[in-house]
Amino acid sequence: MRFVASALVVAAFAVTACRPRPTVSLPKDKAGIEIRTVALALSNVHVVMGEHPLLVDTGCPGELDQLEHDLGTLGVKLADVKCAVVTHGHADHAGTARQLQQRGIKLIAGRGDLWRELRGVHGKLKATSFFAVLLKVAIPARYVPFWPDIRVVDRYDLHDCGVDGEVRVVGAHTAGSVVVIVGGGKVALVGDLFRGGALAGYVRRGSPKDHFYQEDLALAHQRIRELLAAGVEYFVLGHGGPAKRADVERVFGR
């Protein structure tokens, strides 16, 4: 077991060495809004382009310099960012949140994950497969604690952040997990509601799969179907992606 876990860590670092370059993952002519994406070591950070760029997630602890560099290659300056949405309080998504807050960026997160964020802890991970149990060793457990400026209970309008859209609490992955709805309802940035592809999302990135960890897997499936019923066409993911509606329907149903 220890050998397998060590092999997984080595494989994870080998894969991240070949991570995708920063890119426009969803062009405006396709969805009515442009999404730019930085693929960091373990997760994606997305930028919703609007009057001000909106960050969705913040990467792992220690990745701020890499994030800022890669954002720069996409023409995005942190000085222009007013808000960052933390989709949930896991270390690979909330890792640089406090540093961004210290740079004057307003943090938005679901209130249900406040206990994680105040303590800077990943918390217990409920695996959805045996492989996920082995993978835990590669995931950081702690990050710098922070107090979100906005703690969302149900919904939060993002107009003050410079984007036409809203944050919605969905739970499932964690109690406080949120999604970001933009593009007139056609685009959902869903954090870890599900994942895309294999090998940390670097292979077949648009192929939808259950996430490795879910506090409530049945609720995750329900939330995905609710987003489909609401008319979402593109799902922008925390790992891999984006995924198209037809592929999500095929895997999770309508």
SSE inventory with pairings:
Elements: H1 2-16, E1 23-26, H2 28-31, E2 35-39, E3 44-48, E4 54-56, H3 64-73, E5 83-86, H4 91-94, H5 97-102, E6 106-110, H6 114-119, H7 130-135, E7 150-152, E8 155-157, E9 165-169, E10 178-182, E11 187-189, E12 195-198, E13 203-209, H8 217-229, E14 234-236, E15 243-244, H9 245-252
Parallel strand pairs: 4-5, 5-6, 6-7, 11-14
Antiparallel strand pairs: 1-2, 2-3, 3-4, 8-9, 9-10, 10-11, 12-13, 14-15
Question: What can you see in these coordinates?
Answer:
- With 254 residues, this protein is α/β, with parallel strands linked by helices.
- It has one domain (2-252): Metallo-beta-lactamase, Chain A (4-Layer Sandwich), CATH 3.60.15.10.
- The protein has nine helices and 15 strands.
- It has helices at 2-16, 28-31, 64-73, 91-94, 97-102, 114-119, 130-135, 217-229, 245-252, and strands at 23-26, 35-39, 44-48, 54-56, 83-86, 106-110, 150-152, 155-157, 165-169, 178-182, 187-189, 195-198, 203-209, 234-236, 243-244.
- The chain has a seven-stranded mixed β-sheet with strand order 1-2-3-4-5-6-7. A six-stranded mixed β-sheet has the order 8-9-10-11-14-15. It has a two-stranded antiparallel sheet with strand order 12-13.
- α8 crosses α9.
- The model is unreliable at 1-16 (pLDDT under 50).
